[in-house]
Design a protein that fits this description.
167 residues; mainly beta; Phosphatidylethanolamine-binding Protein; 34% strand
């Protein structure tokens, strides 16, 4: 039996992400395209009823890291998200999927924006296989509550890590 796995053709696991995945905001000193990477997965647990996806930078200088993307209620039959699925309007997500606000305070994917000159940051894309068909939350739910509900209902998870730094 194959192991539950997640990957992206945009960058290798533990490899550097392209500038397309950098955030775009002058206040943060970044001018990337803020495009979420294409993601693929296979071999989830047989009892999976939905998926959730989180993207966390544990190296952000906040004391608790930084949450760049939280998506829940991804249907159990989904096996990929296309590049750009993290658009704020959610138009490229599978039907029923829901994005909650990231730590930038916006809906959708918020790209990499480590402080210039800081060490290389890790962006951990974690796909959670859930034992429920949907989480009882809405777009106004905080990402902390969404993540709590995700962990409460998790069967298994898998990760793909991207790296980024600004010199």
């Amino acid at each position: 039996m194959a192991d539950f796995r997640l990957w992206s053709d945009d960058f290798p696991n533990n490899g550097f992400m392209p500038k397309a995945h950098e955030y775009h905001d002058k206040a943060f000193g970044v001018d990337g395209e803020n495009v979420s990477p294409a993601l693929h997965w296979d071999a989830p647990p047989p009892d999976t009823q939905s998926f959730a996806l989180t993207v966390h930078d544990p190296d952000a200088p906040t004391g608790s890291g930084f949450w760049h993307w939280v998506v829940v209620n991804i249907p159990a039959d989904a096996r990929s998200l296309p590049s750009g699925a993290g658009k704020a309007d959610g138009s490229l997500l599978p039907q029923g999927a829901l994005q909650v606000r990231n730590d930038y305070g916006t809906a959708g994917f918020g790209g990499a924006a480590p402080p210039r000159g800081d060490k290389t940051h890790r962006y951990i894309f974690r796909l959670h296989a859930l034992k429920v068909p949907h989480l009882p939350i809405d777009a106004e739910t905080t990402n902390a509550v969404a993540r709590f509900m995700t962990h409460l209902n998790e069967l298994d998870s898998t990760t793909h890590t991207g790296l980024y730094e600004l010199k």
